[in-house]
Amino acid sequence: MPLTEMEIKKAKATNKPYKLTDGGGLFLLVHTNGGKYWRLRYRVGGKEKLLAIGVYPDVTLSEARERREQARKLLANGADPSAVKQEAKQTNNKALQVARENSFVTLAIEYHKVKSPMWTPGHAKQWLGNLEKYALPVIGNRPIAEIEPMELVGIMRTIEEHGTFETRDRLLQSIGAVFKYAIATGRAKYNPAEIRMALVDRPKVEHFHCIPTEELPTFLRSVTAYQEMDKVSPIAISALRLLMLTATRTSEVRYSKWKDFDLDTRCWVIPAEQVGRKGKGDKRKDHAVPLSTQAMAILRGLIPFTGQGEYVFPNRNYSGKVISENTVLKIIETIGYKGKMTGHGFRSLARTVLGDMGHRWEVLEAVLSHALVNQTAAAYVRTSYFEERRDIMQQWADYLAKVEAGAEVIPLRA
Question: I need a surface site. Which of 121, 270, 271, 298 has the fewest CB within 10 A?
Fold first, then answer.
């Protein structure tokens, strides 16, 4: 007689496996561990075979009977249900393998492997890190050809909520590059990352705070007064003063090493690979900074404190590390210029003052280690103007000394 749900539920394990027959070759095999397995007995070419249909209760009685009927139809058409099942399994496994090979994460890693040798280590790490943080948890295992634009919009919206628009734009560029690579290698037909029109506009960039030149005398006197109170580390105050005198970037000062300075020739060469340098890959270049008399005095004064180590401005609390990126900013805030001035502001001041003195713009761009935006001009510039910059940096240092002293400084046209 056909089985009932009640009979199946009441079936208990015994010390031997046993069968509960439903008819038409279908039966439930009850194992000694209590497991209940649907099986279908049938014959093909005079040979008896068994087909595994499923496990109860995942496969109910009615579902087992449906699968029995499907198998009988296959038999009626001359097909072997076990062979059909095995073929379907192989097809499914192949599809899963193809899906894995063409998943977004697979293509992203493949693209990263191709391109990273041409990138700086920092960029390669950041590129993959942003994908791992924001994109891969959402679309990593998805077949790349099935990813839709709205999925990417959702990822970007999440980043926008945190206000990190630069990260959003970089990530979208990275995702778009992976899709372009997939198209080029025949694993995608179109790029769903063309979604910029659906994203909110970036807020206007707020430039680094910088005091006007009229406030510079008061600022410089405040720095000196704070230094004379003997409440600030000589390493920290020297970092601030070297930053002012060289018009370099805060990171370039923080990560400077004694081996980069030649005090005999009064030159500081900032290596292309130094942390914080601008530019990508082979576009980065060493930047030679001429040292004024005042900058030399700062460095010589530091030798007793840090001259035996690797870094010019080491961290006092952590061996092998440099001063914090907030060290200089903290001094500026302490003397009353929070929100008014930043370390980067000295670059703006130097550019303004030296420009008013009449120095050529291309030389001042070299002072600030800026790449020339005008490609035609850049093509003709084959010099770093080092000797000319040496005179300019001395003028800048002398200007700072004079305005702090209260002298009336009249810019001289170069």
Answer: 121
